[in-house]
Amino acid sequence: xxxxxxxxxxxxxxxxxxxxxxxxxxxxxxxxxxxxxxxxxxxxxxxxxxxxxxxxxxxxxxxxxxxxxxxxxxxxxxxxxxxxxxxxxxxxxxxxxxxxxxxxxxxxxxxxxxxxxxxxxxxxxxxxxxxxxxxxxxxxxxxxxxxxxxxxxxxxxxxxxxxxxxxxxxxxxxxxxxxxxxxxxxxxxxxxxxxxxxxxxxxxxxxxxxxxxxxxxxxxxxxxxxxxxxx
Amino acid sequence: xxxxxxxxxxxxxxxxxxxxxxxxxxxxxxxxxxxxxxxxxxxxxxxxxxxxxxxxxxxxxxxxxxxxxxxxxxxxxxxxxxxxxxxxxxxxxxxxxxxxxxxxxxxxxxxxxxxxxxxxxxxxxxxxxxxxxxxxxxxxxxxxxxxxxxxxxxxxxxxxxxxxxxxxxxxxxxxxxxxxxxxxxxxxxxxxxxxxxxxxxxxxxxxxxxxxxxxxxxxxxxxxxxxxxxxxxxxxxxxxxxxxxxxxxxxxxxxxxxxxxxxxxxxxxxxxxxxxxxxxxxxxxxxxxxxxxxxxxxxxxxxxxxxxxxxxxxxxxxxxxxxxxxxxx
Lengths: 231, 329
Prior knowledge:
Largest sheet of chain A: none
Shape of chain B: elongated
Number of strands of chain B: 14
CATH topology of the largest domain in chain B: Rossmann fold
Number of helices of chain B: 12
Number of domains of chain B: 2
CATH architecture of chain A: Orthogonal Bundle
Oligomer: heterodimer
Mean pLDDT of chain B: 89
Strand content of chain A: under 5%
Distance between the termini of chain B: 42 Å
Order of helices and strands of chain A: HHHHHHHHHHH
Number of helices of chain A: 11
Helix content of chain A: over 70%
Strand content of chain B: 25-35%
Number of domains of chain A: 1
Shape of chain A: elongated
Largest interface: A-B, 25 and 35 residues
Number of strands of chain A: 0
CATH architecture of the largest domain in chain B: 3-Layer(aba) Sandwich
Structural class of chain B: alpha/beta
Low-confidence stretches of chain A: none
């Protein structure tokens, strides 16, 4: 271990020995997954409402669909870095602070939930219209169409969407480090960039790439595994 | 009994209103297999969807077992739909559920206990001959097998009616024959009234008791299959039943007779006897006859000799033998 560390800068060695880098990896992972989970808690129902109330949906409600669609578009069109600054007061109102990991989670959720909603919406819309019609012909109430037809039939697409969403949130989390959150992004910016230690930047980059690869491969494996259409 | 009264359906689109159905009056009796045939775009798929209100008619009544579905509240309509099964051209099975899961689906919706639903589903899979494929997923089945699963699913809640929307159009001739055979068995053994939408005359021919011919959003003709096959009145019915005879009409000149076989003994050599007795050669331009239980049904177009006297002899012969015919232009 000492031999490997001897190739790195003094700053890196110091950070490693104090467990900062290890903590950075853990923080990146937990901030990403916690934010993704909360974003799905908001985005999944939102995406369902968007697809169900759309013109070709099972319960078209034009005004609701239009209103939600416009709100989602507003959040989706704002660059993340600007959205973050604009949402500082919101973070303060929700978690009591506009700094640190808690504030960072709020930012990530605000940015990711509309994205997740669109992901869910497009997955649900992929469900074969004929299958929905068959369910209606069998006298299925709308709520049961959602729980017994739309969600189960869209499951593989929803999982693929979740993988893409998580990777996007991971990217955002590096940027969100600038408001004082933790994670590999913070390490790369504070100790790597601002104190001129390129090895810390590159080490963070490599770790992030590895994390993304693991999420991607594992997620796709699950998606394939649960899709009964390909055998 | 399904009664459709003065039904009308129009769609509003950006480019104006499109009338899909108008002046539709139909009565479908209990226990029969009723066919609805028409070219694509004639409105037949919309019509079948009006029977279970998947499409809400613009005007008119849809009365099933004495109840006007148009006046039913939403919840009662959903319940009513469970007594009207439906199968589709594209099978529309739940791809993420097993065969057994698919057949259990309508029972879950109907609030059955899990064990009861499974037992019922297995019973139905046995009926359609797929008891061995319970654990398979739809993607592992052939088209014919998928349609069998769809039939089992449609019958799960013991419906009195079964609507079939182009149910065999995506199948090869062999599978088509098997599915039609199965539908016939379901009709005879379970007493399920079947409504079949199709563009293929041979489907009607094979299993239907009565048929409605639909053309340009309206019903052109309704009658027993034997009636419509032997003496189609509307242009569209003639076109559907004898697509080739119209081509004959277009190319050849001269006097022609359309001879209609309406249940004469099929063993009787009508044309040969005609030629021998009248001493007149006739040219057969078109023939399509079928043998139902030793009786001949169908039509034949023969070209008459140009000599009027010889032609009259042929006509006189047909008159004395009581064989119906129509003079063709």
